[in-house]
Hints:
With 429 residues, chain A is an alpha/beta fold. Chain A contains 18 helices and 11 strands. Chain A is 43% helix and 10% strand.
Amino acid sequence: MLKGKLSLDVTNLDNFEYDMSKCIKCKGCYWVDHIYMPGINFSTRCPSATRYLFDSYGAYGKMRIGMAMLEGRMEYSDELLKTLYACTLCGACDVGCKRNLDLEIELSLEALRIKAVKEGKGPMPEHKKVAKKITEKHNRFGSPHENRNKWLTKDIKVAAKADVLYFVGCSAAYANPEIARATAKILNAAGTPFMLMPDEWCCGNMLYSVGMIDEARELAKRNLEAVRKTGAKTLLLSCAEGYRTWKVDYPKMLNISTDDLGFKVVHLTELVDELIKKEALKLTKPIDMRLTYHDSCSLSRLSEPWTPWKGERGKWGMISPGLERRRGSGGIYQPPRDILKAIPGLELVEMVRMKENAFCCGAGRGTQEAFPDFAAWAAEQRLFEAKTVGAEAIVATCPWCKDNFARVARQNGEDLKIYDISELILAAI
Amino acid sequence: MAISKEAYKVLEAIVGEEYLSSDPVVCEGYRSGPGGYEAGLGYERVMTKIPGCVIMPLTTEEVQKIVRVCNRYKVPYVPYSTGWYGPRSHCHVDDELLIDLKRMDDFEIDEKHLYAVVGSGVIYSQLQEEAMKRGCYIIVGGGGSQCSAIANMLGDGWSPLSYRIGLPHRRILGTELILPDGELVKMGSLAVGDDPFWGDGFGPDLRGLLRGFTGLRGCLGIVTKMAIKLLPFQPEKLEPTGISPNTVLQLPVNRVKWINFTMPSKESMKQAMFEMARAEIGAGVTKVPIFWRAIAKASCKEEYWDIWSKESEETIKDFHLLRVLLVGFGSEEQMEYEERVLNDIITEIGGEARRTRPTDESWFKNADSAGMWLMCGGYVSVDYVIETLEHSLPHGENYAELKKKFTPPLMPDYGDPGWFQSFELGHQGYSEFLVYWDPDENTDGVDHFYLETSKENIRKRFYTSLLGPHQPLYLTGPAYGPNYHKWMLAVKDEFDPNFLSHPPVPLAHDEFVEKAEWMRPMKDWKSPKLP
Lengths: 429, 531
């Protein structure tokens, strides 16, 4: 609706009619912030529009297509589903738009996927397969549930009860155990006791991302209750995607604020940065390497806390009560950089596109499953960018990024090393 | 006439399957509105269509072939580089081919001779950064950093920095243009070789073709490549800082500095512009529209209105803000000298320097046009005029009076008519009249105001740059000609005999008035039956 009562509820596309109808095609969603524009190369931040080129793949096209869907002028088709899903929902468009305007682009895109699922047309077949695995095995890989804690080694101390609960996530538990192990060992080294979930299930990141809101909400309720039962004060994640799911998507789905979760949601980099600054953790072993840092979208521009809002829109499009808009400026940008700078011998070199202008790795929000070629293409772009600044290695804060980079580097015979930040922290202790 | 299967196949053979689509989803992505420059108004609703087909060529040769196919199969077409320029740059008739030029992003730079050769897909901020890496600069027009450099150069995009280095069309060097019938025209030194270093060629200066009907809006061809003159800058880096939305360029204040001055009157601002020009100092100057200050201060729409609604005619009428850019192009001493001279000028005129941040938010790299939509959601500049400084002030005052009659639906601006500044070291004056409205209310009054500005210009004998397709040609043509319209149509007929290059331009606004019933009562001029 353009005027009158509305909320930020993504299950009702009507809430975003104003936002979709006010896109002005400035393409701030597509280009790197002009202040930071690096020149002819690496000048865009939207993977989807950069790869597929037609305007329909940029937020400026999707907002118009969204209006057509809302007004019943658009039939579902393969092209429409590709337009909705060949997109990493990486938030680049949202922060780009909100540099100048107050439009909710990311929420509009999420609401469009939810609408497609509600109307029986979405998600993509590959997403349905993953959803089935999550339902049956409680992890996105379909691996046996009993293997979830297989990553644990004997030298890792896990407390039966602690203030910190490490939510490992499917990726680190099954596909990237090195991240889970490194995280646990860092906590041990820092003298920070931690516990694990008695029975950890998938966070449901994929379900929410592809618009399966009912399934995602059920999982959110189950997981939230399980964490609350443990009495944890801090929920720690080493996965940026999981971090956003817990910190932003759960409150969004459950219509509560992040503060109402009952515990703090913290990414490993936030904790380690704090420990280093308090001198509770010292990084003393040198790592002689020229390395670049990749801002994982869900730790950076997508990670600001959620606050539910409902109210009214009136004259000139003003809303009341006021709303603190999530513009990406409060993302976790500096802590990972400070950690890397604290490692002796390590030379941190920035890529051209960084922080809120970073180019997504291409893996998340259902892209890798349904459009693997696109996901690989996006990773290639980013690896190429890393090489142009003379980096020997690239480090991320999310197993999705690491995995996608590593796969593409392997396939292409790249000599660039790929790390998760937990591995480097551990190596430097 | 629908694009035939045969024509589609031929087009596909030119660019390949991946770069051509008539899928309704793809075409919907190229809809003009409902948001955007001039969008949400009657013109956009009545005159625009989604394309019948979209094609993305890579080379000049491909564009030439596409245009020839359009002529062979009688397919109307419109070129499109970024889609920024609102409904006027979107399809107007059914089954129109939209030629999306974004893949044409070739870029070369000649540091020695100070020019860059760009394709249609290259935008201003890209070009500016590449220029600055090499100690040069260009003007990022007020249309915004996101504008295609070529499209904005054709439209004579200007900025406060145009004070020093003049109008864009003077910086157009060798250029390639595909005429509406598919003929390739090479202009300037490109006409006799491969080096585009010089704008003039043999015979008459064909660059007039580019500016016909106010630049790109005339649709007299598709520019696929242009060499743009770069200007020498100063040597220090303008450092990007901050996190979005608060990103700025930190200025090296020993070489680059903005200074804001409060001035006693509009007249005194004009006087300051003249005196600066006489002393040959300054790199940029502009009168600051007061609502721009409110936009700059506000962190969101609601805060803007908190600030702006406290203003009134009383608070606005005596508040005059002049913003001056100094650049020590040659040396720090030049900077110091110019600052001393500037301060003397301002002091003599009765102005006063204000504390000014040592940053640039919106002119070097980030011409922030998108911010114009923050307040209301609807924006267009109803008139922009390059005449004299003497012309600017009375024109602005007259316009402000007219605007009062249409407020609402227009946003109240309390008598502040917009933007005016000096061009080309005082030899020209520029004014631009910006209007804002709530697109979710009845906008008929905005449509009426748009047309009424044209009538007012005629009544009061003011000049306007929007004689061409932005107003009814049969209204403006006889008044400014008396045969202006006949010449325009004759030129169009000569170059576009099949009338395929973005019809019904140049008669689009005439057609709009005929089609929109709420506009018809305003029609008090004669026109023949439109084709």
